[in-house]
Amino acid sequence: MSDVPPSHPRYVSLRCRDAIVAGVDKGITSAHGLIAHGRGEALDYLIGERTRPFARQAARAAAALLLLAERPVISVNGNVAALVAVEMVELGRVLGAPLEINIFHASKARERKMKKHLLENGATQILMPSTKAELSFIDSQRRFVHPEGIFTADVVFVPLEDGDRCEALRKMGKKVVVVDLNPLSRTARKANIALVDNVVRAVPVLIEEIGKAKKKSTKALKRVVDAYDHRQVLGAAEQCLRRGGRA
User: Fold this and answer.
1) Is residue 147 part of a domain?
2) Which of 75, 80, 84, 167 makes a 20 to 30 Å CA pair with 113?
3) Overall pTM > 0.85
4) Is residue 3 very low, low, confident or very high in pLDDT (cuts 50, 70, 90)?
């Protein structure tokens, strides 16, 4: 994207498009991911392409919940790998949590390329899907997970999740944190905590909030989680969308 200067008002958005296209070219992102990204981009435009207070509030609660977890796991799909590989690696580092590859359009070749891509961006622990562990309440290929990862996790961070797996994880008794630009989606509504924000902003914000939360006591972290009002956050996000980003 050398022909577009950083001063361009849509520079970040255009850079994300290029990253997704590059992900497809590298074989780490499904072509279907282009459609999903476009849908999210439209919603991001409506919230003014910036992190709103409701997203920051959710990130603060998510940081507390993830730090309280005994077995947190970070799920990665093709779009996430293309857009925020470095940030996801850093998130795993600050949480001491593994990254686990999990994609809807299953492909062993793509999974291997995603693993290579994450390792090249600094990852040290990558869990892969396995037929030895299978989620309940779901029939898609995303039901296959690593036996020591998502399958046994108590809290799962699943940016850019699809609603059926989010619902399945909840039914299995797991707590779920998602990133979803659509506050009306089943994913956002079924999750414990939803960051209604663009993933390229949401993950850095979450890392920042984890850094702050690490200074708090366990009791203080629990108070943050208990004070989080999921309906209120999603309601505020919906109103923001309906107003086209106007407060």
Assistant:
1) yes
2) 167
3) yes
4) confident
pLDDT > 70: percent of the chain: 99
User: What CA–CA distances, in Å, run from 67 to 22, 53, 179, 207, 213?
Assistant: 33, 21, 17, 11, 8
* Main-chain dihedrals φ then ψ at residue 156, nearest 5 degrees: -120, 130
Residue 82 sits in a domain of what CATH number?
Answer: 3.40.50.12640
Q: What 8-state DSSP symbol labels residue 247?
A: -
Q: Is 154 helix (H, G, I), strand (E, B) or coil?
A: coil
* Residue 93 counted as domain residue: yes
Count of C-beta atoms within a 10 Å radius of residue 42: 11
C-beta separation of 161 from 178 below 8 A = yes
- The model's pLDDT over 110-119, given as tens digits with 9 standing for 90+, comes to 999 999 999 9
- pLDDT single digits (tens) 207-217: 999 999 999 99
Is residue 2 a part of any domain in this protein? no
Q: How many domains does the chain have?
A: 1
